[in-house]
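PROTEIN DESIGN WORKSHEET
SECTION A - STRUCTURE
LENGTH: 753
TOKENS:
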């Protein structure tokens, strides 16, 4: 072997050793951490979104101090107030009138004064009532004015007030007192003395205005498991309308298909062997129906979405911006999420997009279930939007925002991390094309969406509220229902009203109807409503006159009055309904945004029902009206406890006014019929239980605005698709090969309960 060969082998050996050393040194080393790059900041907002901002805890506290010192009446803390007391029920922001806001945002006018809306219960007065005050200016109030008559046309009677937490405590005490009158029956039916039974309210409360009489349904309570699936068959009717708690009484008892005058009457019937008792064993936590405890140890981690260079959206105060979008966001403690001044590429598309109400209407052969029509705004859709669980309710790396409220207390409360914002990769092209003829190329764009989300827990149900903003200029609004079904004790012909989901549990049928307000301003405030649909016309073939052809054609119509623009639920509606500007795009078409509803709603309550006017918004899948400052919401928190004389009746909004070149509002109802089944245990799943609507540009632009997205991909057969310069997807390996920064998992959602 000559020297040259030896040297070559030595060099090769050294190179091999060096390579092995490099591998050994790098094996097991974590990839470098992702380097966050701040998103491009836009100064267009410049703090203007704060005109819509929710109150801060400091502002709420200032309002409470002002009211305590300036109303001239004694105020009890609402958390401890008796019905015969005066108290501050809630404090929220009073959003200024639209004209004032637009003069400030667009006309260079002064910022409107910041004000609060305070709701007070006056029980310690000769004429008990609910009064609403506007208090301002913040942060240091010096005035208040009563706006109750201005808003509602008269005083709000005291019986319409929502039930407070303290009232429920007193009702529970009364029920426990009554249960003690039937010890032998409770021991036989439920292995209970009554103290370990959970009590669930129903609503509305009676049969006529002034009633405050509520059925309460009793369940076995098991720690760590939803009690909603364990009814014991016992329901009680409580009259609690008197200002003095000592005068409340239990009016009726229901058990297993029969009614009794009192618990004592039921006990006597039991002792006389006149009650058909279903003897239930007290469920154990590990075997309880509906337990959500994991049944298997954790597996390998699921896929994780993360941003290699940090979020591409920006959140400042109450404003989020993302790839041309800007949105002011907030949360009404009663009605839930609300968005304002939604702009795309600098142009306002929507002035207000807000949830109005969520109705759950039940059927059953038990009194509690058959009489339940929950109007969740009365309970507090925003108030009960609790902390979101990082990595499950929202992506782990989402931005989480605290929300503050003052309800039934003089101390502001915080639901921390109760709203999340994130960019979502839908794993679906927004648009794409593979060309296999003429020239060979591929072009496309990923469907990445900005999402604003909150989740409300309203007794048994959890509603996932999503507001999504697409690169095409479209807005998507979506709600999913999950959580526990409500149930009745199974007896008699129970399957006429649902399905049996447990040994003695009837999953009761119900409707979910959700209502939204959409104040579209398409290329300005003045819009008209345009519809398009299709028909077929039979024509002779121009090139073969002896033959005919069915030719599709467009039917176009402008709807000029509100009555024509009120589309009844579950009736045919034009497939294209658009808010149109008087101005045109490049091709001569009116700049428009289309409303596209995705819903599977059940039947609306018959209009002959004495409570139907309180939910008359549910008559319509879509209704378009003139915008009026005196019609800010489609319902009221006072409708729940007096639906027979509703404080706000949406049907009155539709009075056949002209809607051509006017400031218009779209009121949209979505929903679905839910017949619970075995697979709803332990929880209803979100799959198939989502509804909503789209607001889509329709000739608003001259082409799809997503062509300007920096995420667009294009390469041809003549290019090297694997080269970073030709294809941004080829750049992912060097730019995204990093470890995401994951903050430690913490959860404080149980703190304010």
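SECTION B - SEQUENCE
RESIDUE ASSIGNMENT:
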């Amino acid at each position: 072997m000559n020297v040259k060969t030896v040297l070559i082998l030595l060099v090769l050996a050294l190179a091999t050793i060096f390579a092995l050393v490099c591998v050994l040194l790098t094996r097991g080393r974590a990839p470098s951490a992702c380097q966050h790059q701040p998103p491009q900041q836009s100064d267009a907002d410049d703090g203007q979104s704060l005109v819509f901002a929710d109150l801060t805890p400091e502002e709420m506290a200032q309002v409470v101090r002002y009211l305590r010192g300036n109303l001239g009446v004694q105020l009890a803390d609402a958390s401890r107030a008796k019905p015969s007391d005066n108290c501050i029920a809630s404090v929220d922001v009073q959003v200024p009138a639209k004209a004032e806001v637009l003069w400030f945002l667009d006309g260079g006018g002064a910022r409107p004064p910041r004000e609060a809306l305070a709701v007070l219960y006056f029980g310690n007065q000769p004429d008990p009532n609910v009064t609403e005050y506007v208090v301002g200016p913040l942060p240091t109030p010096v005035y208040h004015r009563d706006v109750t008559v201005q808003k509602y046309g008269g005083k709000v009677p005291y019986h319409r007030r929502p039930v407070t937490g303290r009232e429920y405590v007193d009702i529970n005490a009364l029920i426990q007192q009554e249960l003690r009158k039937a010890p032998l029956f409770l021991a036989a039916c439920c292995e209970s003395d009554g103290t370990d039974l959970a009590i669930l309210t129903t609503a509305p409360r009676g049969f006529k205005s002034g009633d405050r009489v509520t059925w309460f349904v009793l369940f076995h309570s098991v720690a760590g498991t939803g009690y909603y699936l364990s009814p014991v068959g016992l329901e009680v009717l409580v009259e609690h309308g008197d200002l003095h708690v000592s005068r409340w009484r239990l009016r009726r008892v229901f058990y297993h298909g029969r009614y009794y005058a009192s618990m004592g009457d039921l006990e006597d019937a039991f002792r006389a062997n006149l009650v058909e008792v279903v003897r239930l064993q007290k469920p154990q936590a590990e075997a309880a129906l509906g337990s959500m405890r994991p049944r298997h140890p954790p597996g390998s981690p699921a896929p994780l979405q993360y941003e290699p260079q940090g979020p591409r959206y920006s959140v400042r105060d109450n404003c989020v911006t993302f790839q041309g979008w800007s949105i002011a966001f907030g949360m009404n403690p009663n009605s839930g999420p609300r968005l304002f001044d939604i702009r795309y590429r600098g142009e306002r598309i929507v002035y207000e997009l807000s949830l109005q109400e969520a109705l759950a209407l039940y059927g059953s052969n038990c009194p509690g279930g058959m009489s339940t029509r929950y109007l969740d705004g009365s309970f507090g859709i925003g108030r009960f939007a609790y902390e979101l669980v990082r990595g499950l309710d929202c992506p782990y790396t989402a931005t989480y925002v605290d929300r503050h409220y003052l309800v039934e207390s003089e101390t502001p409360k915080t639901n921390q991390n109760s709203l999340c914002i994130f960019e979502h990769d839908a794993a679906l092209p927004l648009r794409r094309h593979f060309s296999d003829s003429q020239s060979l190329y591929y072009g496309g764009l990923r469907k990445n969406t900005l999402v604003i989300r909150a989740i409300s827990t309203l007794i048994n149900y959890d509603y996932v509220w999503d507001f999504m903003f697409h690169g095409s200029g479209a807005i998507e609004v979506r709600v999913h229902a999950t959580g526990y079904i409500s149930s009745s004790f199974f007896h008699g012909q129970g399957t006429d009203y649902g399905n049996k989901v447990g040994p003695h549990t009837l999953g009761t049928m119900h409707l979910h109807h959700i209502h939204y307000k959409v104040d579209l301003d398409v290329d300005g405030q003045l819009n008209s409503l345009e519809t398009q649909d299709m028909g077929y016309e039979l024509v002779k073939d121009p090139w073969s006159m002896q033959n005919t052809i069915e030719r599709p054609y467009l039917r176009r119509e402008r709807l000029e009055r509100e009555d024509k623009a009120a589309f009844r639920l579950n009736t045919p509606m034009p497939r294209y309904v658009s808010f149109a500007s008087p101005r045109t795009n490049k091709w001569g078409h009116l700049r428009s945004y289309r409303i596209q509803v995705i819903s599977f709603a059940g039947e609306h309550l018959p209009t002959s029902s004495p409570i139907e006017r309180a939910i008359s918004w549910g008559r319509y899948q879509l209704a378009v009206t003139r915008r009026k400052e005196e019609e800010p919401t489609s319902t009221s928190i006072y409708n729940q406890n007096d639906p027979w004389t509703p404080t706000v009746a949406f049907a009155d909004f539709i009075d056949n006014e002209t809607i051509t070149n006017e400031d218009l509002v779209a009121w949209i109802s979505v929903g679905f019929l839910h017949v619970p089944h075995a697979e709803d245990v332990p929880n209803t799943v979100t799959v198939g239980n989502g509804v909503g609507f789209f607001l889509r540009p329709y000739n608003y632009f001259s082409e799809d605005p997503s062509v300007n997205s920096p995420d667009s991909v294009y390469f041809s057969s003549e290019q090297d698709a694997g080269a970073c310069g030709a294809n941004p997807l080829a750049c992912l390996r060097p730019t995204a090969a990093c470890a995401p920064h994951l903050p430690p998992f913490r959860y404080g959602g149980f703190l304010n309960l």
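SECTION C - NOTES
The chain has ten helices and 34 strands.
The first helix runs from residue 3 to 26.
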